[in-house]
Design goal:
Strand order of the largest sheet: 6-7-8-9-10-11
Number of helices: 11
Largest sheet: 6 strands, mixed
Low-confidence stretches: 1-17
Structural class: alpha+beta
Shape: globular
Number of strands: 21
Length: 434
């Protein structure tokens, strides 16, 4: 293992509240969190098994699939970090150093290389952008939460992925271009040729760095709100125009088996985004039995398996359903978002996953989308946005926020789980159509 991957670079395990990495993990209630950034979100069955085994040996066997399509290994002790670094380096998943790991936050199209509707090779563009973030030391000053997404214009829109800069392939006046959008200004974009996209994204990121200290902004959305999108585009030497944004791809539409020409892909999720080493092993086993060996992580906390024969995709969906994976867009567990909660998170005072599971029956037949957010505290890590109902843990009980985020004003406080169930059921009944 190179000296620059040594344990000496690991931040003290008492640091909390920022985005962890593999070289710089974060302390939580169940130990260190090691975030594994997998280039393009692509891996095969051997790598999936290797990660599951690593989580068993060096952590508590629990994994979270993040909204940045990264896998977070939980329950790691500091003494196991050197072994984790060696294993990740062997798999090609260890960054060169902390500075570059900190900023290589690029989400690639989950079906890159498989989607016949794609306008560009989104995986290749994402790879070039990652390389620029790694190699251009000026970009290492970006905040750790600053992120990019590449949308190849294919069947899986990335329009709802929460990032700072989006690179979207679009056909304008007969030409395929890359439209660069800023968080907080979704209707406007700077359009450039494909071979100029990484340079343009770099200029936008540097413009952010030039302006962010003046306006005390740590994310692009706040800078746009304070200064306006035109100022950011102008600082990057780019002109903007109105470019219609296509609708987002709902998670419900990608679960289960889907034919794509002569092949198919399968989408599956785990309840509340929590995967265990055992579930990853079972996923690899079921996939291998049906001739599948390609896995893609997505920012919707789901996995895709592309390139499967259509008849085998249907059999694989049935097998995974029997293993408690979510493979049906109507599954009511999709209507509930929940953070890790206590005891995994030191900020939480309630067991969020158990509480969420107990409340799932309330959501049977609910409209698509997250209807209930169970948050261990007011930070709302699992869902920063509003939800129709948000339960927020406080001193072992719940406060209820209606049509607001976790830090919103509650309409009821200090509810136990039974009282929370009754209060949500009552309010749902009041607004149900007659």
């Amino acid at each position: 293992m190179s000296a620059r991957h040594s344990a000496a670079q690991v931040a003290p395990p008492t640091i909390r509240g920022w985005c962890p990495g593999a070289l710089q993990p974060m302390a939580s209630g169940d130990g260190l969190i090691v975030r594994i950034r997998i280039p393009g979100g692509r891996l095969d069955g051997a790598a999936l098994r290797a990660l599951a085994d690593l989580g068993r040996r060096c952590g508590n066997g629990a994994f979270d699939l993040s909204q940045r399509a990264n896998l977070q290994m939980r329950g790691v002790s500091e003494r196991n970090l050197p072994e984790i670094h060696r294993a990740l380096a062997d798999l090609g998943y260890l960054a060169r150093d902390i500075a570059s790991e900190h900023v290589q936050n690029v989400i690639a199209p989950p079906l890159a290389g498989f989607d016949p509707a794609a306008l560009i090779d989104g995986g290749a563009l994402a790879g070039r952008l990652e390389a620029r973030l790694r190699d251009d030391s000026r970009l290492h000053a970006l905040p750790g939460k600053f992120g990019f997404v590449v949308d190849d214009g294919g069947m899986m829109s990335m329009a709802d992925v929460d990032v700072d800069i989006a690179l979207e392939a679009a056909r304008i006046d007969g030409d395929v271009v890359i439209a660069l959008r800023l968080a907080g200004a979704p209707d406007f974009a700077a359009c450039v040729a494909q071979d100029a996209a990484v340079d343009a994204a770099t200029r936008l990121a540097l413009a952010f760095l030039d302006l962010c200290e003046t306006y005390r902004a740590r994310r692009m959305r706040r800078l746009v709100a304070a200064r306006g999108a035109d100022a950011v585009f102008a600082a990057a030497g780019l002109s903007r125009r109105m470019v219609a944004r296509r609708p987002a791809a709902p998670l419900t539409a990608m679960l289960g088996a889907h034919a794509v020409g002569a092949r198919a892909f399968l989408g599956c999720a785990a309840p509340f985004g929590r995967w265990s080493a055992g579930t990853l092993d079972r996923l690899a086993d079921c996939a291998r039995a049906q001739g599948a060996d390609a896995f893609r992580f997505t920012p919707w906390r789901a996995l895709l398996l592309p390139g499967v024969a259509p008849d085998r995709a249907t059999a694989l969906a049935a097998a995974l359903g029997r293993e408690n994976f979510i493979v049906d867009g109507a599954d009511p567990r999709l209507a509930v978002a929940a953070c890790p909660g206590a005891p995994a998170c030191g900020s939480a005072s309630v067991r969020t996953h158990e509480s969420a599971q107990a409340l799932v029956p309330l959501l049977a037949g609910a409209p698509p989308g997250v209807r209930l957010h169970v948050s261990g505290c007011a930070k709302g890590c699992a869902r920063p946005r509003s939800a129709p109902f948000t339960l927020v843990g406080r001193a072992g009980l719940f406060d209820l926020v209606v049509d607001g985020p976790a830090d919103g004003a509650p309409v009821a406080v200090a509810l136990d789980l039974a009282a929370a169930h009754c209060e949500i059921a009552r309010r749902m009944a009041e607004v149900a159509p007659t």
